[in-house]
Amino acid sequence: MSKIKSLLSGLLLSIVVVAGVAAWILLPWQALLAVAALLVAWMLATRSGRQAGSVTHVGISTLPQRLGASSVVVIGIAGVVGVLVALLAMAEGYRQTVAATGNEDTAIVLRGGSAAEVMSVMEREALLAVSQAPEIARDADNRPLASSEIVVAANLPLRGAADEDGSVQLRGVDPVAWEVRPGMRIVEGRTFESGRRELVVGQGARRQFAGLDPGNELRLGSDVWTVVGVFASGDALESEVWADAGIIATTYRRGSSRNSITARLTSPDAFSAFKATLQADPRLKVEADTTAEYFSRQSEGMTKVLRIIGIVVGSIMAVGAVFGALNTMFATVAARAREIATLRAIGFRGLPVVVAVMLETMLLAAIGGALGGLIAWLVFNGYTASTLAGGVGQLTFEFRVTPQLLWDGLKWALAIGFVGGLFPAVRAARLPVTDALRAA
Amino acid sequence: MKYMHLVWAALFRRKTRTFLTLASIMAAFLLFGLLDGIRTTFSQLGQNADGAQRLQTGSKLSFIETLPLSLRTRIVQVDNIEAVTWANWFGGAYQNPRNQIFSFAVADNYLDLYPEIEVSAEARDAFARTRTGALVGQALANRFDWKVGDRVPLQSTIFPNADGTLNWEFEIVGIFRARDGEESGFTDGLFLLRYDYFAESTPYVDGDVGWYVSRVRDVRQADAAAKAIDALSANSPNETKTMTEQAAFASQLKQMADIGLIVGSIMGAVFFTLLLLTGNTMAQAVRERTSELAVLKTIGFSSTSVLLMVLAESVLLVVLGGVLGLGLAAIAGPALGQGSGGVLNLPPVGLESWLLGLGLMVAIGLLVGALPALRGMRLNIVDALAGR
């Protein structure tokens, strides 16, 4: 009989754990706040609630005596949350950098079927036809704000590594490119002059590669180029090096063909009309996207991979930490067995004891989660990393520890605390009073 | 060793605690197995003996630039060069332009320089006979369920066909696999098509090639050969950069991401956490057994043997959990790869990972056991028995 009973209660506990964690993940914070408010109300209003409150008070006030064991839970959970938040911050930083590159009122036109700029080829006739579309904004002199651009990969020596080359995205642009992308600004030196072998470098590219300081000369192929300025844009373009499209075309033997056109539209709403115009033109076999859409698609795959790695690693670590927390809390309960039994002997019921032990573990977990998030934020927020992106050049980006990520980390911590505390709590409440009183 | 049963009994004195600790350690080493698998695959790419023998010559300007085919006859004449082959990117994608596969157009003698690609003689014959033929890696074939004889449409993301569209069709004439599973992740995912067919069909290539691969006779003189190859086209519009395949792989991977740093910092956090959890468990176990240890000492066990027994217990605990965890990683890694349909390629846990893992287990075991063991050794019998 007792076997069936314990089997049933084990089953029930597992259901509670699964339901609790699922609710924790699914419910929005408003609902969770309501649950927390209910708990507080219960603790204040009812007799057993007040009992739970006082047992929790005793538990928490004796925590310093169990500092060693409790800090194991805290640091264990901090480790999990720290790693998780750091990995997700990498994914987030990458996504934000790439996604910030585009917006809704500029469009990028590529040859049909091209997955990325570097794979697209557009001939002169197509370039002209596209730039004459009526939806493209025009400047004061009535010239269309459309920049035909060449993207090539150039090998440059990496900073800090002797004799090692990296690949940088070298973009040849029309002079109008600066007006097409108003977010770009020169922070040092000046912009290149058309028709000369001059380069302006993004801040990210400058950090990554050696010799990209204004005034320096460097060789690309058999030609010597001069770096004349540095630009900042706060997005993926910062990892690029820019020069005059005509000169790049000569160096890389591209003739009059270009890779893509980036154009500023008269308004964000004009995009569908722009797309329709291009489709209606029988000379053109091109695809247009808003730059926002294009860049978010470029980052999609990589962000997904980074997020999956973060969550898989985090989950495995979380499982490890749950067992660690269980261990510690079982030991804590065992150490306080006599105390808890005494409470029950003088009339405290099981539920307040369960709630008290749970609250204690959740408190430790919350401290651990906050600590882990704080460490991840201190160490990794703004940490610069780079990866090969868009198939051609290195993209530098910063880890971003956002409030959302910190909140996610805290949620994980509390979930670990919930699972790690529940079983020991139930055990504490179930232990026969007489046995526990006799225990050492 | 003769006290093994004692150590064993002590280990399972509190079954719940031991199993929970084992589970923590398992989780840590499962992670270690998976991550170290990734690390070693990356570090071994191109590291085999065949890779060291091969030089890769590409454009110095950038890796997307092509080189003239005429360079081939001049490279062959360079001292110490045994054979030369060449290849070009094809940039193929299946079904969806974003579904890209590693596809190269290769010269007819390409496979001669890559003995690690195991392909049957019939398949090679068929490849030489069929203009539109293609050889595909085992993993790639599994991913899309391709069989020999299938005609597969590919879309090149870069090169148009003779008819001006980006659509190509190939007949699969053979499936190859990587020898001994080496670099299986990369090699088994390759799609090889014929360079002559490719170059004649597409208007863009003009008989240019993406890169040359040459085999050197004497590996020790490889650097000199590389310099000699680069000298051939110095100051021409097609300057080249030649590296051993090993160096080329290493520099490319470094640009992908600093794998070592990421894996290293995760492992650091994992083991720090693990050390703490296990160390705490061992400390508890010894504290609980204070009186038992005192009894042992009373009946004549020396302090050293008490020390060794506690150490043995903690090492045993970590090794047990670690071996289980690594074993799980060995099963879970390939299973995950299968489950993801070849997108994620997790290698099985290699010998190197096992050795490194075992070393770590013993080291961690000794480290976490040290304090409790010292405590046990210094135990004063009278105080311990009195419960002070």
Summarize the structure in words.
Chain B: InterPro entries: ABC-4/HrtB_transporter, ABC3_permease_C, MacB_PCD. Chain B: Keywords: Cell membrane, Membrane, Transmembrane, Transmembrane helix. The complex is a heterodimer of chains A (440) and B (388). By secondary structure, chain A is α+β, with helices and mostly antiparallel strands. In chain A, helix 4 packs antiparallel against helix 13. In chain A, strands 1, 2, 3, 4, 5, 6, 7, 8, 9 and 10 form a 10-stranded mixed β-sheet that branches. Chain B has 2 domains: 168 residues, no CATH class; 178 residues, no CATH class. Chain B is α+β, with helices and mostly antiparallel strands. In chain B, the strands form 2 sheets. In chain B, strands 1, 3, 4, 5, 6, 7, 8, 9, 10, 12 and 13 form an 11-stranded mixed β-sheet that branches. A two-stranded antiparallel sheet of chain B has the order 2-11. At the A-B interface, helix 4, strand 2, strand 3, helix 10 and strand 11 of A face helix 2, helix 11 and helix 12 of B.
